[in-house]
Amino acid sequence: MKNNNHLMPKVVIAALVAGLLGGGITYGGINMFQNSGLDTAVPNGSNAGGTTGTSNIKVDVQNQSEKAYKAVKDSVVSVINLKKSQSSNDPFASIFGENQSSKDSNKLEANSEGSGVIYKKSGNAAYIVTNNHVVAGASALQILLSNGKQLEAKLVGRDSVTDLAVLKINGSQIKDIASFGNSDDINVGETALAIGSPLGSAYASSLTQGIISAKKREVQLTGSNGQQTGNTASVIQTDTAINPGNSGGPLINLAGQVVGINSMKLASDGQGTSVEGIGFAIPSNEVTRIINELVKNGKIERPALGIRYINLSNIAVSQQKSVLKLPSSVENGVVVFDVTKDGPAANAGLKKYDVITELAGKKISSQDQIRSILYEQKIGSTIQVKFYRGGNLHTGDIKLSENSSQLKIND
User: Fold this and answer.
1) For the chain: N or C, fewer Cβ within 10 A?
2) For the PDZ domain, which residue ranges apply (predicted)?
């Protein structure tokens, strides 16, 4: 408090001095002209001498950012999500013998727009990667190329967990495709460029520039309803401007390689404080893995344990001792409260009230980690599990023989 009391007068004084200097220049200047005796009258006569022109000197300022942009921009597209319009219920339609409701229900209207990037051409087909939330709920999809041409697009596959989707278009007019770089090779501080259609196709091919702020930032994923899904993602953080409509567009390096697919940004801290310069992109190494599987299978199959569970921290300490019989040294884990009969966990011997503390060699501190660990595994693989039962530590092996679509529970 003492230091602050001394500091405040200095700030106020500095502001006052600045104000006085500004006023002194203005008023002092007027006094100077008034007392100088100079002829300050505006000249009469023609204003022809006031015309001007532009210089014919050309400045070559081409830099690496411009070269990278030119290499990628024609492969970046706007993705238009079309939905069937709602009935207008026009009260005058019946007067003219028109079934307006029927007409309206077949009419497609633009519901939302995002971005995408053409990454592959094979024969007469071309493939586009974008975000799942860009195409979710669409009755039809349309692509706007950088040259203004519109094409119909078909959904090849999409994945809500990673927020990625693959579209297919007629590739006969496609000449430019983007290439993926290795997202493991990017460095914090290096220049990053984002290309897309912020606020829609009216601003298509917009370029923004920033840096890589973090290579692997763990963030909570949210669904289309704005609620957290319980899943986390390891993403690239960048201060490159990413706005609504940039979703699905590429984050590129100065070599013109796609190192990420722009997916989301932080707009506020959830408590009313606005946030600037915190955007996220899905790393290209993750993107290529997911889109290859989407092209092959149309969906992503992930292994499941076949259990329901909650965080150990949600269980009263008294019950941790009386019911779970846990040693006081165990502070983190998840508690199993339901096991699917003949599921992977049941076949490995897990039961209700077991407390899982480690899975696939990784310690469990929250239930979100279970999903993250499982999503790194393949169906058919075997992982080790460590759990407490009746106060004793047990170790077992779980064969991940089934996927999450077969086991409709929270793992």
Assistant:
1) N
2) 303-391
